[in-house]
Design brief:
The structure is a single chain. The protein is mainly alpha-helical and about 325 residues long. It has twelve helices and two strands. A two-stranded parallel ribbon has the order 1-2. α3 runs parallel beside α7. The longest helix is centred in the middle third of the chain and has 35 residues.
């Protein structure tokens, strides 16, 4: 009796699949990788595929990223551009007016015999008082615009360290307003020069010092405004408070004949800054005025940081 061969039952044949047959169970067919290894992108499980960084490595920008963010936000506010335009217009108009006043007040034929000859930089310095409020409005918007629009919440989510937030804003405000102040000082000098004519004194070193002084003053007074804005959180309250501290309070205190009260007026930030700019030696030398202004700016920042740290956005 003949036997019928049985196909596929040979143990040797069953242990290795025939050519062209389906692979054995348990071996993945996608990408030819071993079981348990993901087939998407050919990477082993665990390390993230975004950016090629290992798991656990922070990808945030830190303080540098916060500064870059504040820089971008500053120029995205339309009111900032209007404040810049107002600053340049105010400086040009005020410098021209002061130069005309000086020129008209001097009637001597020989300018060298008249005490009315003034340094060109002094015209720019005297033009700072009305011009500064356009610059301070820009500095104020860096913090108050975020509170009014509610974007301060997003800022604090992306930069949880509130110290980094206030520091980044300070760096941007101080840098921008210093450069702006130098440009404004140069503009005031250039506007005054042709109007004054012989009644204007131009010495490169002296003029450069005056222009840099305008930049330093506006940078420090802008940082002071930023701190007040962080503490008060409102544009109206901030601008009103800064205006009172810089102009009204010192002028009111200076009207009295009480020496102690007058010394308080001399120590106010606006008065101290102008002492520094004008080089006055009474009641204290210019470096003391710069130190007083720096102290006011630091105290305002400290109060703003305290409020930002303790209160919700």
């Amino acid at each position: 009796m003949s036997t019928v061969p049985t196909r596929g039952l040979d143990p040797a044949a069953s242990s290795s699949p025939a050519r062209g047959s389906a692979p054995t169970a348990g071996v993945p067919t996608g990408g030819g990788l071993a079981a348990g290894v993901p087939t998407g992108g050919g990477l082993a499980a665990g390390p993230p595929t975004g950016g090629g960084l290992a798991a656990g490595v922070p990808t945030g920008g830190g303080l540098a990223g916060a500064v870059a963010s504040e820089w971008t936000k500053l120029w995205s506010v339309r009111s900032v551009w209007w404040a810049l335009l107002a600053g340049f217009l105010l400086m040009a108009a005020t410098a021209a007016q002061l130069a005309i006043y000086v020129q008209n007040s001097n009637t001597s034929v020989d300018p060298t015999d008249d005490r009315g000859v003034v340094a060109l930089g002094r015209i720019a310095i005297d033009s700072v008082e009305p011009t500064q409020f356009a610059v301070l409005a820009m500095a104020m918007l860096v913090i108050t615009a975020e509170y009014s629009s509610g974007t301060i919440r997003a800022t604090l989510q992306w930069t949880p360290s509130r110290g980094h937030v206030i520091l980044a804003k300070t760096i941007v405000v101080a840098g921008v307003t210093f450069v702006l102040g130098v440009l404004l000082g140069a503009l005031g000098t250039l506007v005054a020069a042709p109007i004054l004519g012989d009644w204007g004194r131009y010495e490169p070193t002296e003029t450069l010092g005056d222009v840099l002084g305008v930049g330093a003053y506006l940078a420090l007074i802008s940082v002071f405004t930023l701190g007040v804005g962080a503490a008060l959180r409102g544009a109206v309250a901030t601008l009103t408070s800064v205006f009172l501290v810089l102009t009204v309070v010192p002028a009111t205190l200076g009207l009295t004949n009480v020496t102690f009260v007058q010394r308080i007026a001399d120590a106010m930030p606006g008065t101290a800054g102008l002492h520094f700019l004008r080089g006055d030696t009474d009641p204290y030398p210019p470096p003391v005025g710069l130190l007083l202004l720096t102290t006011w700016a630091a105290l305002a920042l400290l109060s703003g940081h305290t409020v930002l740290h303790r209160r919700d956005a």
